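Researcher: Let's do a round of design. I'm pasting the structure tokens now; please hold your answer until I've finished.
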């Protein structure tokens, strides 16, 4: 399954510069989108959130990709942690 990047809401607002560099090198080495692991997502209300893969999503967006592969994240969310984050 694929979704438009613009329709995915990040759940994390910090990206490590070191991780961006490493991930960029990895993405350039694979070269094709079909080897890109699906990004896990969850729906909360009418919004669809990334639960992981924020760096890959950021780099795909920077590379001009309009759509990315996604997969529904079946793990339970820790609502206690989420409600205390500011």
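Researcher: That's everything. Go ahead.
Model: Designed sequence:
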């Amino acid at each position: 399954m694929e979704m438009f990047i613009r329709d995915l809401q990040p759940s994390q607002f910090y990206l490590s510069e070191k991780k961006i560099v490493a991930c960029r090198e990895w993405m350039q080495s694979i070269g094709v989108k079909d080897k890109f692991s699906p990004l896990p997502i969850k729906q909360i209300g009418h919004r669809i959130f990334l639960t992981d893969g924020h760096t890959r999503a950021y780099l795909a967006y920077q590379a001009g990709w309009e759509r990315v592969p996604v997969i529904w994240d079946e793990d339970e969310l820790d609502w206690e942690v989420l409600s205390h984050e500011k």
